[in-house]
Amino acid sequence: MPLRRRDRIEPTDDWQQLELLVRSPGQRTYELIRPVVLFGQPPAERAAETSTAARTVYRHVARFDERGLVGLEPPPKIAKHHRLPAELRQAILDLKREHPPLNIYEITTICWARFGQRPSPHTVKRLLAEQPPPPRATRRFSPYRQIVDPAERRLAIIRLHSEGWNKRSIAAYLETSRVTVHETLKRWLAEGVAGLDDKSSAPKQPAHKATLRAIATIKELQANPELGEWRVHAALKRAGIFLSPRTCGRILALNRKLYGLPKPAATPKAARPMPFAARHRHQIWSVDIRYLDHRLGDFRVYCISVLDNYSRAILASGLSRTQDLTAYLLILYMAIRQHGAPGVLVSDSGGVFLAKQAQAIYAALGIEKREIDRRQPWQNYIETTFNVQRRMADWDFARAATWADLLAAHDHWVAEYNYQDHWAHRQRDDGKRSPAQVLGWVRGTVFSAQELQRVFYATRSGRTLDRAGYVRFRRWRLYAERGLRGEAVAVWLYGERLTLAFSDEPLAHYTVTYQPDKRHLKTVTEERRFETPHRSPQPSLWEWGDGEWLTVLRLPDYAPRTTRAGGQGQLPLFVLDDVG
After folding, report:
1. How far apart are CA 34 and CA 61, in angstroms?
2. What is the distance between the alpha carbons of residues 443 and 389, in angstroms, rounded to a whole number?
3. pLDDT tens digit string along 143-189?
4. What pTM did the predictor assign?
5. Bridge partner list, 409
6. pLDDT per residue over 484-511, tens digit each?
7. Which of 68, 155, 246, 415 has the maximum number of C-beta atoms within 10 A of its C-beta?
8. CA nearest neighbour of 496 among 514, 475, 512, 476
9. Quick one: residue 187, left, alpha or beta (phi over 0 = left, psi -120 to 50 = alpha)?
10. What is the residue extent of each domain of the chain?
């Protein structure tokens, strides 16, 4: 083949001109290292002349000394998947052939567990695309149920897991369930080799958990015929006796048969979706008033309660002899003071819940007020709680002979309800079963005492009892309780009802009338004083008769201001003339 005629060019050692004349990477490398190889020029000096890294010059010279002219050409590029060790490449192909559903990331994890090297997912993908593995001919492990020895079956799971297989792939490869894989690994971690063999399914504890103490305790609880197996189970658990609800039900049935005890009336109803279900604590509260079928003297008894819809915890509850706005606001104030304000408050369309004063308080605290549909009490979560109250506490309420007994029964019910297991929490993953555990330390929107006082100022005022147990309020002196002298009490006034309360517990009710200015009180009449545990330990010297002890005293009006005798009053600071 005839050579192509070339243009004559004068020889030069200028590197910039040489770079323009070279036509291949090998020729360029030759011109770069020629002064170093032929004339012994230092590589660092040559690197400075050609603006090349000194390490590059050293590397090219070393390759030329080792391989000659072949070393002038750059080494061919090798794909990353060809750089993998042969053992690792073969393991990747074997894994894909053994279990085709394995994805790329699982294969990299298995390689890291077996060889201590995690190849790139792209490298594995290119390797499998270039060399697709042949179909599987044999298996390392037979399907789980086909392995006769139980220890060998579980050992296959352990070996695959130690190689980096995840639980899903192990279950699919051995044709078993993930639960089996999980339980096997759990036993291996807890017991080691001893956990590989089959174990007897016989109970490890005594078969009869229902001891005489448990049966006797259930017999005592069964004095309240409204308690069912779940409530008895929760009460026993709180007392340190752990029996399943079914066991409690069998013992209850046995006691009814032996002693002729009545059975609680069951009223099964179909479950319906709740429109006010909460997703977190203090998102939605429910409030309602329940009439207790119990009379002490000539007055009725009402239970006012506030419930958190998420945890089902009673946030505040109290007994009242009226169902007016003052009694409701007292319980609402107690709940907000202890737990903060909710996002939504749900109730029925009762007048006390929709009063203008209550609406102003909701708006000031940022509470959204919602009502259930008419004649649909099941939409209010607290109705379910009141049904629980009927079973747990109505029997104790009926036996109460005094107001103090009623308060004690109510407080006992609130504590037992909040700290016993609740049916709604029986399947929680975190192990919290009681409303108090679910509620925990979380609070709603917190307000300071001064902010709450400002919000409730129209109906609530603070006063301090004098040494005789009286408070001064709008030029009247009203008796509260002599045993609480020096203590701070709350004065709740709404409409014609005035209530004195200490620690959110009513002490006395008064009926008032107003003067024409609608602010100053014209008359105050004692309506009722409550029996409280705060009575003075010092007994009275004698019993007061009617008209001898006044619980309401009208204080004299302030004397009009008068100037000093012969005085002309305060003189003006300066006198203005006609122009000024």
Report:
1. 9
2. 25
3. 888 888 888 888 989 889 988 888 999 999 889 999 999 988 888 88
4. 0.51
5. none
6. 888 888 888 877 778 888 877 788 888 8
7. 155
8. 512
9. alpha
10. 15-72, 82-195, 212-259, 284-439, 459-533+549-554
